[in-house]
Amino acid sequence: MSDDTQHLEGPIGRRTRSCATELVCRDCGYRTASLDSAFKCPACGDGLDIDYDYERAKATIAEHGLDDRPWNIWRFEELLPITSAAAQARVGQFAGQTPLIHADRLGAELGLKNLYLKDDSTNRPSLSYKDRVVGMAIARLVELGKDEVGCVSTGNVGTAVAALAAKAGASAYVFYPGNMEKGKAKACRALGAQVCQLAGNYDQANRACRELSLASGIEFANITLRPFYAEGAKTMAFEVVEGLGWRSPDHFVIPAAGGTLSSRVHKGLNELEMVGLAETAGTKINIAQAGGCDPIATAILEGGEIEPQTPDTAAHSLAIGAPGDGPLVVDAVRTRGGSAATPTDPEIWEAIDLLGATEGILTEPAGGTTIASVAQLAARGKIGAEETVVAIISGNGLKTIQDHPEKDWPEMVACNLEAMGAQLDGFRRTAATVA
Ligand SMILES: Cc1ncc(COP(=O)(O)O)c(C=O)c1O
Ligand SMILES: [Zn+2]
Prior knowledge:
Layout: E1 20-24, E2 31-33, E3 49-52, H1 54-64, H2 85-90, E4 100-102, H3 104-110, E5 114-119, H4 130-143, E6 148-152, H5 156-168, E7 171-176, H6 182-190, E8 194-197, H7 202-216, E9 219-220, H8 226-231, H9 234-243, E10 251-255, H10 260-274, E11 284-288, H11 295-302, H12 326-336, E12 340-341, H13 345-359, H14 365-379, E13 388-393, H15 417-434
Parallel strand pairs: 5-13, 6-7, 6-9, 7-8, 10-11, 10-13, 11-12
Antiparallel strand pairs: 1-2, 1-3, 4-5
């Protein structure tokens, strides 16, 4: 078959080297062709996952090498589900490949010599890890030849959908729950999306959006396109391991809401091993959740199944009480080893300040949850001083700064030498007590 006719769906054109084969249910084994529009298993209702021909992926990666690959989310296209090169070229060209930073100053505070931050607060175009997953969903939308997309969001999916749909030339409809940072909804509107806030929490909004997507036939990035969306999160694992010179870290510390990122980092690590790029079996996955919404962390720490919760936390982007991928996360942590932490909201705000003051990175409460969790895991001896730890900073604090606790500051100081000199003395006294 020629390159021009090989892919089964979407606009005709050059095919990528994607080695995706089928949609598969990990629970009951149901399989269907990847052109199928199903996103849930018709037999058991579980979410569908995407399967690959790993032998072919291994051979293709070996044949093409790593030198001429793009530095974006499409770098390991063999292990991603998009088959239309045109769809792939339309979005995500600047997503992914965020900095991997040796956090020496923060590490010194926490007693960790080899602490790294994967800084997705700088992700493109919308400053969160969601650019990876939504990049995949919007490419799929383009591949399907559609030009309308909806989403339900705790905050960041919405801004990613607004930005990436704009670039793809698609109309974006964003549905937010009642309790979220308004700045994110405002950003969506500035990006040209239609935005609606629903009178319910995320889990209620999610159920309603599912009904709406089925009734309207409109694709929803994180509902009907979910099998494709989720695959984007694997790029986090690929980039971290390559960034560490193909040495997988001892630990990931990953914030979890629905559980897509943490479960797909697990899948991505497994795939790196299957295609012969790195040995990843020794890497543990640790989960960060806010104490006010910690269904996944509780199942990990106490054993047993996930019990849905009603969220009550300032970490709005992590406030999912019934996490769809939660069981996959629990399974990943039990398989690989790892643990979980559940900091309180005051601990999360304190961690945001600590990260800012030591590494110069302003994160949102999801990132504060991760850093507070690293501190707790280190204090509990779950992470050793010499071990290599990668903590994922998944969102940017500029998007949520209006919601951060107020800090007193001198406003309207007289604009003269005397008043400013006195102020400077005050600054120096404060700086000396903080240091
Ligand atoms: C900033 C940020 N970090 C982490 C997550 C967790 O994502 P997941 O649903 O993949 O667990 C989210 C989800 O909304 C998020 O917005
Ligand atoms: Zn099934």
